[in-house]
Design a protein that fits this description.
alpha/beta, 508 residues
Length: 508
């Protein structure tokens, strides 16, 4: 072997050793003279194979073959996505707590007054709480004729306003609210459907209560279809003709308590009361002292005998409500003074209507001044409170074959005024509901005292309408300090009366 050959072999071996050191490979070698020499390189993961071929002769040739093996990567995982139930995820949020700071409450000086029933507060803006100043009370020595001088802004300044977009009323809530007038409710229930002669017995120790009972008797007579002025019979204005008519002629008779001591009067009454068994509509309001004397003569002749059990607080509250939330009089005769206050509401609306003559449309049939006044309050409320364009308010126009008093097409609102003369208020609500329910929401505008006298029947009608899905609200004319005459939903109206009753109860 020549030196060149030996040198070549050493070069191959050195290359082999170098490869083994760098790659950590296991090597197998075999070299033979003048034969093909092969060098194999393997790893635990064979990727490349190198073959070297050498011809050992005078000239040397090298041939390197590289076999490339494909790289194999694992497949990506399969992910199955189903619809997510987002209800099972709870997203929590922890708000930053903001400490509320309040103004120092006003100082109140009260003598022997339990204010636990009062919570007077007003929120003008969401960001700030503002408290109303306490009521100012001026109270002197109390007797049956004292006038309560109470200024309470919470009863007049912040009356709730009903907007057209509001939902229908809640008759169940109304039924719960009216319980504070239970004695009156029992009295009105006995009188509202009475026929023939009715005797109302009053406690003569309640100075002036006979006058309030006379007012109620007049209003009930209107609902029954009679228009009477009461005959007042007293020792100072003694009229024998009036005494003879008691029990025999239709009308309303108020016998004053001072007649209990007059012998001549007792003799005449004894004879006239024998005629009370007829069917003529009449109401006799007499003191308990006379009733006890003539109880045997009266017997069971009248159609009804009713004993009043009204407190001063109830009568004061009824006067406050009947006057449209104006009359604040804490006496037994308070109801006898409400007519002028209610008339003021109607007059205020009619004066306003003088400047909006396009809406002063008469009913082609006979229309009373009371009906026109109720309509005027409703129109004024729509324009001034609801902010509805006058052009969108239709008055006495045919709508799909019917003619409501007022119709607002934009809101599908029907407004019909009812005077409750000769018709029960609850029956009027049923008639309006049946006639206009296809047009949309219904407002029935009614006199406050008529609603109070037939409250049980009205609640029943409203419950039935709600069951049938008919949206009916009873709206009451009231007087507001800033807006003047306007309407209030009956639920809110009674709520205002309840506030007054509670304040009045504390003072008495």
């Amino acid at each position: 072997m020549s030196e060149e050959e030996k040198e070549l072999i050493r070069s191959i071996e050195n290359a082999e050793e170098e490869t083994n050191r760098e790659e950590g490979l296991k090597t197998t070698k075999k070299v033979e003279s003048k034969k093909e020499k092969s060098l194999k390189i393997s790893t635990s993961k064979p990727i490349i194979r190198v073959s070297i071929k050498a011809e050992l002769d005078a000239q040397f040739h090298f041939e390197v073959k590289v076999n490339l093996q494909p790289l194999i990567f694992p497949l990506p995982p399969k992910i199955s996505i189903k619809p997510l139930d987002t209800l099972t995820y709870i997203i929590t949020y922890t708000p930053n707590l903001i400490k509320l700071s309040f103004k120092t409450p006003p100082l109140v000086s009260v003598n022997n007054l339990d204010t636990s029933l009062f919570t007077i507060s007003e929120i003008n803006r969401p960001q700030k709480l503002v408290f109303i100043s306490p009521s100012t009370l001026t109270v002197s020595s109390l007797d049956d004729k004292i006038y309560l001088q109470l200024v309470d802004k919470s009863l007049t300044k912040n009356k709730q306003i009903v907007f057209i977009q509001n939902n229908a009323g809640e008759p169940e809530k109304l039924e719960e609210q009216i319980t504070f007038l239970n004695n009156f409710s029992q009295l009105s229930k006995s009188l509202i459907r009475a026929n023939g002669t009715t005797i109302i017995v009053y406690d003569e120790n309640k100075a002036g209560i006979d006058e309030s009972l006379a007012y109620l008797a007049v209003e009930i007579a209107k609902i029954r279809g009679y228009d009477f002025n009461p005959y007042v019979i007293s020792s100072s204005e003694l009229s024998l003709t009036k005494l003879y008519n008691v029990g025999t002629t239709a009308g309303i008779y108020v016998i004053k308590e001072d007649l209990c001591k007059t012998e001549e009067v007792r003799t005449i009454l004894r004879d006239s009361l024998n005629g009370i068994m007829g069917y003529k509509y009449s109401t006799i309001i007499m003191p308990e002292c006379l009733y006890k004397e003539f109880q045997i003569i009266i017997g069971g002749k009248p159609k009804k005998i009713v004993f009043e059990n009204l407190s001063k607080e109830e009568i004061s509250t009824l006067a406050y409500l009947a006057s449209g939330l104006q009359m604040r009089l804490g006496t037994y005769d308070a109801l006898a003074n409400v007519n002028s206050s209610f008339e003021e509401i109607l007059s205020n609306a009619m004066e306003w209507l003088e400047h909006h003559k396009s809406k002063d449309v008469h009913n082609k049939g006979e229309e009373s001044e009371l009906h026109r006044g109720l309509k005027a309050v409703a129109i004024k409320h729509l324009v001034e409170v609801e902010k509805i364009d006058e052009d969108k308010i239709l008055v006495e126009e045919d709508i799909r074959g019917v003619k409501p008093d007022i119709y607002v097409k934009e809101f599908g609102l029907v407004i019909d005024a009812k005077t409750s003369y000769g018709v029960l208020p609850s029956d009027e609500i049923y008639d309006v509901q049946k006639k206009y329910s296809s047009l949309g929401k219904i407002w029935v505008v009614m006199r406050s005292i008529a609603v109070l006298l037939d409250m049980k029947g009205i609640i029943g009608r409203l419950k039935e309408a709600k069951k049938q899905g008919i949206n009916v609200d009873v709206m009451i004319p009231i007087m507001d300090n800033t807006k003047g005459s306007m309407l209030m939903r009956v639920e809110d109206f009674i709520s205002e009366g309840k506030k007054w009753y509670r304040q009045n109860s504390i003072l008495h």
